[in-house]
């Protein structure tokens, strides 16, 4: 069985992980599980909570509640995505045995590299994105370590540095970790601070935890596979933002979250005690 991540990709990943975005290469183009018909079938047997789809031509900044429906069923959306101007995501496809095996195969090739930097891979998940020509995924951030593998079509992902509080103020990070939406406020002046990476079939991109980004699809249908995981570092960051939120609500001093949040053990214990006590 051929490797998912091709020669040099693991070296490039190791040099960038966990803090820098990096373009990689992969070997999943043409995989039988990633054709439009296979994905339409997968979508139709998935729980409704695991699918999201809407019209695809959106502004870079849009509130979740303002995202317009496309008026189609999910199966129709995927089978006619070349012409219906839509965007769709299938979430947690690893719950299907075949897609779970594909996720394990991909992440298994990187597990040793990840473990030496941020510990074992936790909460492994996979997502599949399908986009009509010209679709836009608005400016947002995600809580996981992520590698996006381009399977079909072309897209440009513009990635911004994680931890820049002008892009994502501390209070927005705190709200995000409390269950707030991933979409972020967009200002056109941000654009020059990002790194635009064009992805063709066979390309992949490592996106660090909470690195803001937006995606602009090319002139043909795009299919992408996102393989993600959590780590002690990403879990610790979430706990520390949640602690700061508790302190802020009580008008108590908050603390800076450092480059290695997993090492801030005393504050993490304090958060867990406060949460347990319902403080």
Characterization of this structure:
By secondary structure, this protein is an alpha+beta fold. Helices cover 29% and strands 24% of the residues. The protein has eight helices and eleven strands. The protein has a seven-stranded antiparallel beta sheet with strand order 1-9-6-11-4-3-2. A four-stranded antiparallel beta sheet has the order 5-10-7-8, with no helix packed on it. Helix 6 (170-177) crosses helix 7 and helix 7 (232-249) packs across helix 8. The radius of gyration is 19 Å and the shape is globular. The termini are far apart.
Question: What's the short story on this structure?
Answer:
The chain contains eight helices and eleven strands.
Which residue ranges are poorly predicted, with pLDDT under 50 across at least 5 consecutive positions? none
In DSSP terms (H or I, runs of 4 or more residues), the helix count works out at 8
- Termini Cα gap: 53 Å
Strand order of the largest sheet: 1-9-6-11-4-3-2
Shape: globular
Average pLDDT, rounded to a whole number, is 88
Order of helices and strands: HEHEHEHHEEEEHEEEEHH
Radius of gyration: 19 Å
Fraction in beta strands = 15-25%
Major β-sheet annotation? 7 strands, antiparallel
């Amino acid at each position: 069985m051929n490797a998912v991540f091709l020669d040099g990709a693991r070296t490039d990943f190791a040099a960038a992980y966990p803090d820098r975005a990096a373009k990689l290469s992969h070997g999943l183009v043409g995989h039988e599980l990633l054709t439009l018909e296979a994905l339409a079938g997968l979508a139709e047997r998935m729980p409704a909570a695991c699918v999201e789809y809407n019209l695809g031509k959106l502004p870079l900044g849009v509130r979740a509640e303002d995202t317009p429906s496309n008026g189609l069923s999910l199966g129709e959306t995927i089978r006619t995505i070349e012409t219906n101007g839509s965007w769709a995501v299938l979430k947690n496809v690893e719950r299907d045995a075949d897609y779970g095996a594909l996720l394990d195969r991909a992440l298994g090739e990187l597990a040793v590299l990840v473990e030496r930097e941020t510990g074992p891979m936790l909460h492994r998940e996979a997502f599949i994105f399908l986009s009509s020509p010209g679709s836009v995924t608005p400016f947002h951030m995600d809580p996981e370590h992520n590698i996006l593998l381009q399977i079909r079509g072309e897209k440009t992902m513009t990635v911004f540095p994680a931890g820049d509080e002008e892009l994502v103020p501390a209070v927005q990070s705190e709200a995000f970790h409390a269950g707030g939406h991933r979409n972020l406020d967009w200002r056109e002046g941000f654009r020059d601070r990002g790194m635009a990476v064009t992805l063709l079939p066979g390309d992949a991109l490592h996106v660090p935890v909470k690195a803001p980004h937006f995606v602009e699809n090319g002139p043909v249908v795009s299919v992408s596979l996102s393989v993600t995981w959590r780590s002690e570092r990403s879990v610790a960051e979430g706990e520390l933002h949640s602690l700061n939120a508790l302190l802020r609500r009580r008008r108590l001093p908050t603390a800076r979250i450092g480059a290695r949040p997993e090492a801030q053990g005393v504050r993490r214990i304090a958060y867990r005690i406060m949460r347990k006590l319902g403080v």
